[in-house]
Amino acid sequence: MRLVNGRQLRAARVLLGWNQARLAASARVAIGTIRRMESFEGDIGSQTGTLHRVQTALEKGGIEFLDDDRPGVRLKERPRKRGR
Questions:
Q1: How far apart are CA 11 and CA 7, in angstroms?
Q2: Predicted TM-score (pTM) of this structure
Q3: Which residue of 4, 19, 23, 49 has the fewest CB atoms within a 10 Å radius of its CB?
Q4: 3-class DSSP state of 68
């Protein structure tokens, strides 16, 4: 699944507890780029490479993009640690 819209981007960032500066640094893009991408109501208008870097940073942070008729996000299931 790919990152689709500004709301989805904001939701993913907030789920991770990241601010815009942290996402920008993780994706190696300007903070203004993140602000602009989050402002889109519909599909994000961005260069494919930039959008890919942002999506990859979020996925490495633990986000899973949902692929159904309503785009969404959730935290990936983390492996459970074995008992002590």
A1: 6
A2: 0.84
A3: 49
A4: coil
> In terms of residues, how long is the chain?
84
Count of CA atoms in the C-beta half-sphere (13 A) of 25: 5
Q: Three-state DSSP class for 64?
A: strand
Q: Each residue of 23-58: pLDDT tens digit? A: 999 999 999 999 999 999 888 888 789 999 999 999
C-alpha closest to that of 51 among 29, 79, 69, 77: 29
- The residue that leads in pLDDT, 57 or 80, is 57
64 backbone φψ class: left, alpha, beta (φ>0; ψ -120 to 50): beta
Distance from C-alpha of 75 to C-alpha of 71, rounded to nearest angstrom: 14
Cβ neighbors of 50 (< 8 A, separation 6 or more) are 27, 29, 33
